[in-house]
Known about the structure:
By secondary structure, this protein is an all-alpha fold.
Amino acid sequence: xxxxxxxxxxxxxxxxxxxxxxxxxxxxxxxxxxxxxxxxxxxxxxxxxxxxxxxxxxxxxxxxxxxxxxxxxxxxxxxxxxxxxxxxxxxxxxxxxxxxxxxxxxxxxxxxxxxxxxxxxxxxxxxxxxxxxxxxxxxxxxxxxxxxxxxxxxxxxxxxxxxxxxxxxxxxxxxxxxxxxxxxxxxxxxxxxxxxxxxxxxxxx
Length: 205
């Protein structure tokens, strides 16, 4: 399990005036490190995009790359993600604990890479889609966006900074038009071991 949070993350979602999110309403905390702000924005963008609650332009310049990666991962591991949301019996009441348990398991071996970072956003998006379909409420989507944004910003933020920030993420997953498709797909294989651990954890529940 990754280190405990040293401070409460003032997630951007808590200051938004309403749903759905508007790009002009983001960044109410200008004093936050840029890496944390972007992490929260990507969480918002991913859950809105994957849940299908609204069609909107990518929230920042990194969001298009994240959408591409999450789409690829959800297709490549469709059976795993579908099985997880069904097996875990996720509701709005238990989503925080469930999400925390799953992502902590994903990083239990201490290994962090961009593929696993994408896995966190992919899982959040799939959860948001599931709860939106089951509970028909945007509040559940807001909950997931907040939880995911907090986790990436606080637990993975230092590692992201060490890699060179979100610019490094964008370079790691170039536009598929610029590289062979098989090579681009191979970049997501770095998450495979972590996802295998998740499958094992869910199977024994």
